Amino acid sequence: MSCTGLGLFMLYSRYFIPTIKENPSDAEVVSHQLMLRAGMIRKLASGIYNYLPLGLRSIRKFENIVREEMNRAGAIEMLMPSVQPAELWQESGRWSFYGKELLRFKDRKDAEFCMGPTHEEVITDMVRREIKSYRQMPLNFYQVQTKFRDEIRPRFGLMRGREFIMKDAYSFDVDSLAADLSYEKMFNAYMRIFERCGLNFRAVEADTGSIGGSSSHEFMVLADSGEDAIVSCDACRYAANVEKAESPLFTAHTTAAPLLLEKVSTPDKKTIAEVAEFLAVAPEATIKSMVYASDTGDLVMALLRGDHELNELKLKNHLGWDEIVMASEEQIFACTGSPVGYLGPIGLTKDIPVIADRVVQNMANVVLGANEKDQHYINGVPGRDFAVTCFADIRTVEAGDACPRCASGKLEMWRGIEVGHVFKLGIKYSKALSATYLDAQGKEQIIFMGCYGIGIGRTVAAAIEQNHDENGIIFPLPIAPFHCSVVAVNTKDAAVMAASEEIYRTLEGLGVEVLFDDRDERPGIKFKDNDLIGIPLRIVVGSKGLAEGKVEVKIRATGEMLLVPLEEVAATVRQLIDTALAGKE
RNA sequence: CGGUGAGUAGCGCAGCCUGGUAGCGCACCUGCCUUGGGAGCAGGGGGUCGCUGGUUCGAUUCCAGUCUCACCGACCA
Question: Interface pTM (ipTM) of the complex?
Fold first, then answer.
């Protein structure tokens, strides 16, 4: 019997799910491998992908959750162009600041354009033209758009593409206080979005990067393959990206009596570990000195306790530099007169700022480089033996550090995938682009902005990263491409096909998204494919079960198997889906 | 852009060192067989060996250049 008759749309045999048995050699992370293997995506060029039907379905599912929650939070959907004129970017100052990541090109008239990597300029331009009065705010516009960022190193499939789908939203408020409220609304909407997807995530305090603004939170899906390190307190709500995480404020001042500074020979001992071992002291009793350079050639020396790591971002932000890199050997020699390995703050040949981590303030009798090959000092005391321009928090926090916010907590460390980011922008863009309004007194004021992004493809990838097993993807129901599949074990068995078709039609009637695996393949192939593509529920119709009037419902996530009478299966499946979605819509 | 490695059939790879006939597994097509976890047998199609140039009677193989891709460091949803 034929089941390719009219009315059955989601036939596996007529659909397009090109699965791959072997692992593609260039896929590094699980989500990338599985999305390729499950026939969700295919690469067109580096960091640029085709979304195949199955991948698109999943992406659309997530987009719609995002839309629902954005709408619920009062944001308004619109759509901005992906091609943007250079003038706007020149006006905001980012045409020069953004660098090579911004893909630029010219039209036939030689006018300059770029592929939009983000849309602050465009939305602010629209708002400045349309919004004139405090009565028109608050406003929050959002869109789901394809962005392009010419990443230096695209990788991990949809996790870090150059072209990617992003939901971005922009809020406009009369003042800082109102903007805080908009921010909070978005923060809460984001919490709901990722909770609805069943993801294990953390909202963490974050650096604002090139977007700018005063404060921001990142939404991080926890995964070992994540590109970011984050910390969270085991006692309070504090959580932050390691880039941003504050180290604990107080460390005990040493009680040791100051000893006399003394130069000692340390032949070929360059690293902290080597020096500490050679002098038989703990790394905690040493200070390491590093020289950093800005893009404009400014130099600075950073001082840290020997066992601590520098946080370059903190140092960069502290100095207010645009760029920070480790100084070259020539630059180092120019200001210390010493080769790398023996650097220290005593006897610098050039007057450069010395920034010390706060912990250093409370140390005494430390080991320091002597700015001379094979020489170190012992018993150095900050303030007595060398001057420090200022003390600042410039070290990278570690797991087990005391929480900077609460008395009792310790920091735990995780890897995370950044799937969302919310920013308080303040007036950075509205000022640059003169987006103003008249207040109740008729006085001109600058609009306060916020911006809020979610990586759509990246979130789907992160969900896979967090939900898979050796057989493939285990989609959380809310973003699964289909709720369930009907697998006809033997397509040559007319009774099996009739029953399968009946179940398929009934499920569709109940609003269930169902894929009918009608392929004339061996059962093993069908089971493997259904597992691989991660369909949450699988209904198996086989000759033996059918003889007893029963079919099988298998739950992908748990492996649990239910034998259900034929006439009840549709209702059972609907029930399972409703339960899984309960409280999530 | 810097460092490392790789480009040979749709996918995964061998061959190259030591130049002469391009090969294996999977996938694909035909037939038989098979139908509860990626079966079996038989037959078949598919490659300007990334590109350009050089050496040579002859280059997938040697040389030079070039492009592309992946991995390791700075950006970011």
Answer: 0.92
